[in-house]
């Protein structure tokens, strides 16, 4: 059966490291989607924090590694692996060379972080600039610079379909078009000389941009190796559990069946935890894990 993954976001702040991994294991998750920001929340607040050059990712990796040990030990203790990780974002700021250089170094360390955790995938958002030619130039430089580290640490970098909101309405951003996403991945793998790039299909982002999940999955095909599974109302990036929004989950299931998907089912549903009282944290996570097992059964049995 396909393996089920859950995020550490919200849970780490609410429960601490050991209790987070204990709960995920107890609920039936097989792996975690680890946020690289767990070590340094400042990376998620660069808009409010104009000088990011003070934090964990300033350190040499030899000093970052020991900070990861409690996470790795807790995962092992509770029967979990690190199925995928998420890099900080955004990773490119037009006209801010100092910040971009800091983020470039942080991203290299995130790859090393994955190697330390035996995590096979790192999801890295492409830069969105509004002009496809500028995006291609900036993103190719960013991703190609990762190739030596990806090879050294045996990590696959996953691009993700993104959206942008203008005046309250979501629109397609970089890699939302599956044809564009395929071009990125194929070009990068040609450059690497081996498969070091794949795709993380984000269901909620596809819904926001009006993309049919089945046809998008079919176009991306075997390039999809990781997932961000979550639901929304078609207007806002709510990161809710499946069936709490309007996404057609049967078409999602059929798409994964028809492309022969064998990766993990990773749920990026952290905002669901904010809807319910914190005393129901365990029940909410058990429901999400049960949904994952339901999806796995349906994918494997679809059409039979």
Helix share of residues?
40-55%
- Main pleated-sheet profile: 8 strands, parallel
* Alpha-carbon distance between the two ends: 16 Å
Q: What number of structural domains do the residues give? A: 1
Going by CATH, the architecture would be Alpha-Beta Barrel
Total number of strands:
10
Fold-level CATH name: TIM Barrel
**Radius of gyration over all CA atoms, rounded:** 18 Å
Number of helices: 12
The ordered H/E elements are EHHEHEHEHHEEEHEHHEHEHH
The first-level CATH class is given as Alpha Beta
Q: Which secondary-structure class do the elements indicate?
A: alpha/beta
Tell the overall outline. Answer: globular
3D architecture notes:
There is one protein chain. The protein has 304 residues and is α/β, with parallel strands linked by helices. Helices cover 45% and strands 15% of the residues. The protein has a single domain (4-301), classed as Alpha-Beta Barrel (TIM Barrel). Strand 6 and strand 7 form a beta hairpin. It has 12 helices and 10 strands. Residues 41-53 have low confidence and may be disordered.
Q: Summary?
A:
The protein is an alpha/beta fold and about 300 residues long. It is globular and about 45 Å long.
What topology emerges from the helices and strands here?
Blueprint: E1 4-7, H1 11-15, H2 17-27, E2 31-35, H3 61-77, E3 81-86, H4 97-117, E4 121-123, H5 132-144, H6 147-153, E5 156-160, E6 163-166, E7 169-172, H7 178-192, E8 197-202, H8 203-208, H9 213-220, E9 224-228, H10 249-258, E10 265-267, H11 272-275, H12 281-301
Parallel strand pairs: 1-2, 1-10, 2-3, 3-4, 4-5, 5-8, 8-9
Antiparallel strand pairs: 6-7
């Amino acid at each position: 059966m396909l393996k089920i993954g859950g995020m550490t976001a919200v849970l780490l702040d609410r429960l601490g490291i050991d209790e987070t991994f204990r709960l995920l294991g107890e609920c039936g998750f097989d792996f975690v989607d680890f946020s690289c920001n767990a070590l340094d929340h400042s990376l998620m607040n660069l808009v409010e924090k104009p000088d990011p050059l003070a934090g964990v990712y300033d350190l040499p990796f030899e000093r970052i590694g020991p900070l990861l040990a409690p996470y790795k030990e807790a995962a092992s203790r509770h029967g979990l692996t690190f199925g995928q990780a998420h890099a900080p974002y955004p990773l490119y700021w037009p006209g801010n060379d100092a910040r971009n250089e800091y983020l470039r170094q942080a991203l290299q360390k995130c790859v090393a972080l994955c190697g330390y955790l035996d995590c096979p995938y790192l999801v890295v958002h492409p830069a969105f600039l509004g002009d496809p030619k500028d995006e291609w130039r900036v993103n190719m430089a960013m991703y190609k610079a990762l190739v030596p580290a990806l090879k050294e640490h045996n990590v696959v970098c996953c691009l993700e379909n993104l959206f942008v909101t203008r005046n309250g309405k979501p629109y397609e951003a970089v890699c939302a078009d599956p044809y564009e996403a395929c071009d990125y991945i194929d070009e990068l793998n040609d450059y690497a000389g081996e498969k070091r790039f794949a795709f993380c299909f984000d269901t909620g982002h596809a819904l926001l941009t009006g993309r049919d999940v089945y046809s998008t999955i079919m176009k991306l095909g075997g390039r999809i190796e990781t997932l961000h599974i979550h639901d929304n109302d078609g207007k806002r990036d709510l990161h809710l559990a499946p069936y709490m929004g309007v996404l057609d989950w049967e078409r999602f299931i059929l798409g994964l069946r028809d492309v022969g998907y064998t990766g993990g089912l990773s749920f990026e549903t952290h905002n669901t935890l904010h809807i319910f009282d914190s005393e129901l944290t365990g029940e909410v996570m058990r429901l999400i894990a049960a949904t994952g097992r339901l999806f796995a059964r349906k994918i494997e049995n679809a059409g039979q």
